[in-house]
Write a structure and sequence with these properties.
- By secondary structure, the protein is mostly helical.
- The protein has three domains: about 170 residues, no CATH class; about 80 residues, no CATH class; about 70 residues, no CATH class.
- It is built from 20 helices and no strands.
- Helix 2 runs antiparallel to helix 3, helix 6 packs across helix 8 and helix 19 crosses helix 20.
Amino acid sequence: MSTPTSTPWHLEALGLPAHADRVAVRRAYAAALRRVDPAVDPRGFAHLREAYEAARAWCEAMAADAAASEPPVEVSAEAPHETAQDVAEPPSGNASADAAIPPGDEVEHNEAVGTATDPTIVLAWRFAADVAAQTPDEVATSLTQALAEVRTQYIDAPGRFEEHLIDLIGLQRIGHRAAVFAAMEDQCHWREVGHLASLGERGRWIEAVMVQRDAWAQLDSGWREAWLARFVRAEAGLDRSLLRDWPDVARLYQRYPAWIGLHLSAATLSTWQALFDAQSPSTRDELTRMAAPDSAYLPAHVARARQRSGQRSTRLTVSGFVLAALVGIANLVSTGLRQGGTAANGYSTVPADTPRQCVELYVELDKPDALKGRLSEDVKRLKTRADRCAGAGHWHPPVPPR
């Protein structure tokens, strides 16, 4: 076989010399996969895949030319066939090393040891690249098409493909993770008895996401929609207006880490917290006081029951003293009005806001410098109104029309 005088472009793209063989091509491709994120650089992934296919075909053609130009060699019946060593580098350590791979790290581990030539891994990365260019509504259709192609591979291919996608979601290497998770839950039959158990650690992670998602779904719909809108804004780019939401996000992430991870990347969460921590202690305290009330983190039916119970208790207490305190209350209201809305005993006499006024107040106080430059009495009245709105269940941003 003649030696090439120059290195073909596809070998150069993989960082290989002109004399590279098929094993070298496979290993170089597996290593290059670790440096390319299809969700971020779909063109780079497509170029890498094209280079790999061209390099593999080139090596096969060169091997065929060599075989045609050399005389046949008698092979002993005891000569070994191609082994796993020819295809992939073995992991360091003993034969049980694969069992110690943490769930979610298997994709990167396989790439590191050169087994990324499995067509299911290639199809999984291709699906990730497709999702990056789609809207969440298109994910389910794209997954259906990918699964149809996977089923034309070897018999265990659908299961391996499913595992690779779970790893890509868990490692946050794919876009629209919540939509991908929902599509896989439906098309991979995660609700079937025993299916998640067969997935081992991956199945336990999926179950944790489902449990947290179900708990999330019990929260008030207005709060959920407002928070999800904040997540989308934060993933698009953090700005100062989102600082006041960090106390809410931190509390949500503490309660639903796996579920929130489908919406917010680890990088976004880290940057968000760093921006909040960079504020002065007084600013952080002020933003924390403006966070959602405790009732927002309770299941909606529990929050409503507590509100009704509080209202009944209040009515009973008032009715027991209404006749005896009628004159005193009248004097208290009169005094409070003369002193700018605050009675002598410190209790606010400002009438309760309507639901619409509560929403308008929320928007006003949502601004980063909402309380800056205000008199202390004004701040007290605003906080009193906000507390009343929260107690009545009306303290939330405007709910967009459906």
